[in-house]
Amino acid sequence: MLKMAGILILAGIAFAAGGPWLLWAALLASAVGDLFLAGKPARWLLPGMGAFFLAHVFYVVLFWQLGEGSGWSWPVKIAQAALVFGGVFYIRWLVPWIEAKMRLPVILYGAVILMMGAAAIALPGAYGLVTVGALMFIASDSILAHQLFCRPAGAPPQKLASYAVWFLYFFGQAAITLGLILPLA
Fold first, then answer.
1. How far is it, in rounded angstroms, from Cα 44 to Cα 25?
2. Could you give the CA distance from residue 53 to residue 30 in angstroms, rounded to a whole number?
3. In angstroms, what CA-CA distances link 181 with 10, 19, 32?
4. What is the DSSP letter of 68?
5. pTM
6. Is there a contact between 53 and 75 (Cβ–Cβ < 8 Å)?
7. At what angle do helices 128-149 and 100-121 cross, to 10 degrees?
């Protein structure tokens, strides 16, 4: 519930600051995902993933809108390619660990979060904090996926990994939020 409360506060800040509706909608969808995953993650994993999928769709659309006309550059395309190829490699490595009924949802979720990251990388330099936040979000979900699917059944979560997931997720969302509303101030 603490993660959800923090994200709801960020959504409130984004709304009060006049941030784009896609930003606070993404934060609200993330809070719903947190609510689903707060109880019994195994039972509510798919609805939680669905809520986060929607959050990433909002971010993709927002980042594409903000990045329109930012131009084409080799460093951006190389960074996008590195993210996407690295992400595809990670998902491909992860798939054998995932039970059959979860494979397609995980692959689709992986695709949308990689699209979100690639869109963030293409943002103009003034949105550097947003790009860092998006990459932190991806790192958080990568660690979480490893914890959910690769840990032996019944094994307790690793504390350091759990703290890293929370830190990267919350502060990634905070960086995205601040990176989008500070220019409005």
1. 21
2. 9
3. 11, 6, 22
4. T
5. 0.94
6. no
7. 170
Token representation of residue 124: 């103009």
Residue 127 near residue 66, CB atoms below 8 Å? yes
The answer to whether 147 and 157 have CB atoms below 8 angstroms apart is yes
Taking the alpha carbons at both ends of the chain, their separation in whole angstroms is 30
Q: Which amino acid is at 103?
A: R
Are the C-beta atoms of 121 and 83 separated by less than 8 Å?
A: yes
**pLDDT digit string (tens) for 55-96?**
999 999 999 999 887 778 999 999 999 999 999 999 999 999
Check if the beta carbon of residue 10 is closer than 8 Å to that of residue 174.
yes
Contact between residue 34 and residue 109 where contact means Cβ atoms under 8 Å apart: no
